[in-house]
Amino acid sequence: MEKIYEEIKLFKRDRCHPVSTFGGNNIGLGRLRFIKREELEKSKYLKNDSFTVRCDVVVTKRIRSEETPLVVRTSPKPKVARLVTVPPSDLHRHLQDLLCAEKGADVVFEAGGETFTAHRCVLAARSPVFSAELFGSMKESDTTVVIRIDDMEAQVFRALLFFVYTDSLPETKKEDEYAMCQHLLVAADRYNMERLKLMCEERLCSYIGVGTVTTILELAEQHNCDGLKKACFDFLSSQENLKAVTAGEGLEHLSRNCPSLVNELIGTLGNLIQ
Fold first, then answer.
1. What are the MATH domain coordinates in residue numbering (predicted)?
2. Mutual angle of helices 239-247 and 226-236, in 10-degree steps
3. With contact defined as beta carbons under 8 Å apart, do 230 and 217 qualify?
4. Sign of CA dihedral 189, 195, 198, 203
5. What own/partner pairs with CB < 8 Å and gap ≥ 24 does 27-34 have?
6. Other CB atoms within 10 A of residue 37 CB
7. Beta strand 107-111 with 114-118: parallel, antiparallel or unpaired?
8. Cα angle 4-9-14, degrees, rounded to a multiple of 5
9. Three-class SS state of 151
10. Using an 8 Å Cβ cutoff, are 254 and 218 in contact?
11. CATH no. for residue 225?
12. Would you say residue 148 lies in a domain?
């Protein structure tokens, strides 16, 4: 076999042969060197009217590079018993203690004939109005100067400070809660404390009734409490409730103080108002 193979080999490997490359557009290629038929018939390569042609073909595929996301498979974490319990935040308690102890207090207020000490930084952090007052025009003033709070009772300002330091409302007697919520809502609007204002709105919604709805509605209108105002309108949308309110003096008082609100009420509930 080796001898025959050597005989039919047309080109030796030690010769330098041109390399032909076939692309997508090239379907064939001829050779410039030919052998005549007479020479082929006389040559030793023709055996029994046949000869063998050897072709070495190398096919190179285009290499495509694609990014494949690496997926790391991890075994599930073993269940570990929880032996450490993190308690809830008690920051409010520490701040309340700071307020009660008056430790480090640097500002004094007077409201309803009583004095209250507080911390400028805490007040400024909780209210943009306090921030402007304490770190604006009064920044360079003597800390011993007493800041007077007009038109606010002592228990209301005390409750306001309690919320500033604890982010919650103080405990109030049930009979005093309705009035306290009204006063605190006014104070919250005055010092631009939105969370306190919404908390007061929520509690006042539970006090809406025939005898209180017009007072609460007027309060909501004066201090832009949209949710509380809608709750009052919903209460009055009942023909039975509206009839009971109309029989009293609430609407007359409302028409004197907030005539535009009464017009809005008529426009909304006109079909129920006789």
1. 1-57
2. 90
3. no
4. negative
5. none
6. 9
7. antiparallel
8. 130
9. coil
10. yes
11. 1.25.40.420
12. no
According to DSSP, the residues that pair with 110 across neighbouring strands are 115, 148
Phi, psi (rounded to 5 degrees) for 224: 55, 50
Quote the CA–CA distance of 68 and 101 in Å, as a whole number: 64
Q: Give the pLDDT confidence score for residue 267 in this predicted structure.
A: 85
Residue showing tokens 């209460």: 235
Whole-prediction pTM: 0.67
List, in order, residues 6 or more apart from 116 with CB less than 8 Å away.
Answer: 108, 109, 110, 157, 158, 161
Q: Which of 118, 117, 95 is nearest to 166 (CA)?
A: 95
- How many structural domains is the chain composed of? 1
Asked whether residue 193 is domain-assigned, the answer is: no
**Cβ pair 122, 95 in contact under 8 A:** yes
What are the tokens at 176? 């005093």
Sole residue written with tokens 């007061």: 200
Q: Which residue has the tokens 């535009």?
A: 260
pLDDT digits (tens, 9 = 90+) for 95-137: 999 999 889 999 999 999 999 999 999 999 999 999 999 998 6
pLDDT at 19: 54
